[in-house]
Amino acid sequence: MLVLLLISNLFAVTNIAPEHFDGLLQKAPRLKALAFENEAAQARRVSRLSLFAPTLHARAGIEKFSIGNLNNRTQGYGSVEARLNVFKSGQDHAQFKEFSLNAKRIEEETKAQVGDELARLYELYYEAKATQKKITILESALETNRRHLGMANRRLKAGLVTNTDLLDFNIYELKVQEQLIKEELTLKEIEILTRTLLGLDQNEKISWKSSSFRHPVELTGAGERTEKIMQYALDATENSTYQKQSWWKPKVDLVASFAQLTQREEDYIFAKDRQEKVLALELTFDLDFGASPWSEAAESRLSEQALAQTMRQQLLSVRENVTFIDEAQRLYTDQLKKVEAHAEIAKIHLKQTLEEYARGVKNAPDVLGASERVTESEIELIDANLALNKILAQKLRLSQL
């Protein structure tokens, strides 16, 4: 069974395409951890409902005792006490509200993290597709160079060129092979990062599928989630501050109890005469005149002020990034058009250079230079497309903030 499992993992293939991203991210370790944290926050919030519930304390036992003229008496005892807080200066409500706000904050942070992981997966996808295209271009450049080398061999036999031409083409081939190895290593690194992001087995193969599908991006609401998160955090801190500032305030409890005492505590012979019943309204002050309560309250107030400043800074950062990303998309789109035009010119130049080389007008360095410019312009075109796609991924990330 274990062997079959290992074999199945060895041949497992995960298809990576934008339309599958939502399903793939469900298994992402980071998002799984956030989901558990979200559940824990919700559980903590629900647990704080017990602040408004009565408490019940019960005990029972049997004891053997001797006291005065009572020798070796064995009697049972027990008590039950119910306590209901009817007033706590609002501290219980503040505490429940604090945990509720923190639960809401974590829920929104989880949604923002989902957007961040989705954008990261898009970036890896774009990088992988771009690297694959570069590998294809470099492989094509090797094939083209070998054809040019064959042409140089024929001209050498005809006595039109020297061995230097052959050396030029051989040196260029080594240079392209070196670039090819670098791109292949880059692709492997991208696959490792993707497996880590998605929690895939290290033996699982990845297939990068071409797709025109893209998640919709709307920046009009960018910053709304950040504002929510910060406001939840600020309100939670305010409630925490209120609790710490109210340390000196009293609490009022309604107490009801029943106790069955033994003759060790009461002299009455009959057990029913040793029963104790209490109904009370209890006022309690927990006073601590040390520095701790005051310093904790002061610390909480300062934390609240610092958080308010952070909130303004983060909102400003999101809005500035929205402005930047729109401008960057416009500039990268213009740059892409220029690079496309340059790539077309490089192809025309190579074609003309080859024609002139065949007539003996141009030499090997001219052909190599023209070929290299074509390869470079095609790679520049891929990089320009990648830069634009990464801007789109960043827009997706911003739309979730």
Describe this structure in words.
This protein is of the alpha+beta class. It folds into two domains: about 20-50 and about 90-250 and about 290-400, Outer membrane efflux proteins (OEP) (Up-down Bundle); about 55-85 and about 250-285. It has helices at about 1-10, 20-25, 30-45, 90-155, 165-200, 225-245, 290-360, 365-400, and strands at about 15, 55-65, 70-85, 205-210, 250-260, 275-285. Strand 2 and strand 3 (about 70-85) form a beta hairpin. Helix 4 (about 90-155) runs antiparallel to helix 6 (about 225-245) and helix 4 (about 90-155) runs antiparallel to helix 8 (about 365-400). The longest helix is centred in the first third of the chain and has 67 residues, at about 90-155. The protein is elongated. It starts with a helix and ends with a helix.
Summary?
The chain has 8 helices and 6 strands. The protein is α+β, with helices and mostly antiparallel strands. It has 2 domains: 21-52 and 89-250 and 292-399, Up-down Bundle (Outer membrane efflux proteins (OEP)), CATH 1.20.1600; 54-87 and 251-284.
Keywords:
alpha+beta; four-stranded antiparallel beta sheet; 8 helices; elongated; 6 strands; about 400 residues; Outer membrane efflux proteins (OEP); two-stranded parallel sheet
